[in-house]
Amino acid sequence: MSNPEARPDEMVCTGAESTTVEIMTPREVPLGGPRAMSVRRTLPQRQRSLIGAWCFLDHYGPDPVSESGGMTVAPHPHTGLQTVSWLFQGEIEHRDSAGNRAMVLPGEVNLMTAGHGISHSEVSTADTTVLHGAQLWVALPDAARDTAPGFEHYAPDEVAGDGWRGRVFLGSLLGRTSPVATFTPLLGAEMVLDPGAVLDLDVDPTYEHGVLVDLGSVRVAGTDASANDLAYVPPGGDRLALEAGAEGARVLVLGGPPFGEAIVMWWNFVGRTHEEVVAYRDAWQAQVPDRTDGRFGVTEGDLDWIPAPPLPNARLRTRS
């Protein structure tokens, strides 16, 4: 997914230290014109930019496609990150410049590695009537951020217990381990809790965790979180307690050790310096007019490529 903001800020992102659970609420971001769907962005925020290596989280739907127009994200570039697509409902076609063409389906993860550079498009299918899901980005560590682009798909089996069920799509949890490769330790899982269900998850105490509430409400490590909230839990505990409200809950559990590197995020790029980001933008803009090959390759299809937004006149702002 592309960041559609017309004036995206550069961000020097570091995980601020915390000893208590933080509740982060989203802001609405439109994906296109007046009829286009909007997304709820919960990461990055001013007070917290990363959870482990997770650096971006958009949450959308359930949207009736006849009203929202569905998702039509034309070819756009990425560097220095991996995209993680997870759907609850609907279907999206993914195409990228590494030659991958795949469907994003509910309960199945698609992970695209941008590395040195890739472009891709995402379009909801004609048969989709309701679209509901999350799009996440993972920052690549310095040693891997120039790696070759790639793509992986995985359909995790459901694991269930008393009052809950889940799917582990990245990392390890509940005795299940995803085979999907990442460049830093990560956790990603969908958990569905029955009304009033209580679940204590065994987690790595070196990880910080984020719990995105998709539906219902849930008490996360003793702190209440409502639908669309993202609860941040700092490292240090080997148990993550989830308690569903009276209507039950569906959540995404994310985690990883504190990233330990400062990153610069602007538009769809993750770099380390102002100069790098400017160079990424220039490389993409050189490809756009004639759809020529270059650093970001060529994504096939009829959609017009998305040009990069203008850079500020001054040096890009930093925020920590």
Descriptive terms for the model:
single chain; 320 residues; mainly beta; 2 helices; 25 strands; 6% helix; globular; iron; Pirin family protein
Give the strand content.
over 45%
Class by SSE composition: mainly beta
Indicate the radius of gyration in whole angstroms.
Answer: 19 Å
Main pleated sheet: 9 strands, antiparallel
Q: State mean pLDDT (0 to 100 scale).
A: 92
Principal-axes shape call: globular
Look at the structure and name the CATH superfamily. Jelly Rolls
What is the CA-CA span between the terminal residues? 24 Å
How many DSSP-defined strands? Answer: 25
Number of domains: 1
Give me the CATH fold name.
Jelly Rolls
**Low-confidence parts lasting 5 or more residues at pLDDT below 50?**
14-18
Give the helix proportion (percent range).
under 10%
CATH architecture: Sandwich
Reading the helices and strands in chain order gives: EEEEEHEEEEEEEEEEEEEEEEEEEEH
Family: Belongs to the pirin family.
Pfam families: Pirin (PF02678), Pirin_C (PF05726)
Protein name: Pirin family protein
Domain Pirin N-terminal: 38-138
Structural description of this entry:
This protein is mainly beta. The relative contact order is 0.21. It has one domain (11-256): Jelly Rolls (Sandwich). Residues 14-18 have low confidence and may be disordered. It has helices at 65-68, 274-287, and strands spanning 11-13, 22-24, 27-30, 38-43, 54-64, 72-78, 81-89, 92-96, 101-104, 109-113, 118-124, 130-139, 150-154, 159-161, 164-170, 172-173, 176-177, 187-193, 198-202, 208-220, 223-225, 230-233, 239-256, 263-266, 269-271.
